[in-house]
Amino acid sequence: xxxxxxxxxxxxxxxxxxxxxxxxxxxxxxxxxxxxxxxxxxxxxxxxxxxxxxxxxxxxxxxxxxxxxxxxxxxxxxxxxxxxxxxxxxxxxxxxxxxxxxxxxxxxxxxxxxxxxxxxxxxxxxxxxxxxxxxxxxxxxxxxxxxxxxxxxxxxxxxxxxxxxxxxxxx
Length: 171
Hints:
Elements lengths: L2 H14 L19 H4 L12 E6 L2 E7 L17 E13 L11 E3 L9 E6 L4 E6 L2 E7 L17 H9 L1
Antiparallel strand pairs: 1-2, 2-3, 3-7, 4-5, 5-6, 6-7
């Protein structure tokens, strides 16, 4: 091959690559980067589903929500079908909040419960797309969402982070 063609092929490969992300991953699954097929490596319940899968891993309940469904999950035109949009984890046993070392992070704190003031508090790091859900000071679950850098791929879906925690409380 000639040098200009090789240069063109290299340029094409570099620009076609998925951009790097700082997203939080859980068990190797990253919102807006991983697919239902990736999730199926953790649970076969993710293999055949179009919208979401739910399973137990160790003592935790896990729900993964996928793109591409018009029932319950809005369509994200810039995201391929069956891409992981969110990971919601409910712990079987609460964990100590101190384990999560929140002091060095800038979290937005909100009360996700309705009615409010029931003892729930959520710490949301929009930069990393990560939420820590607590009840009376104990961590009861985590939510992994798109990072601030990736939210533009499906902004309507990530518009109300409180909805992801409420979903985790109900399910």
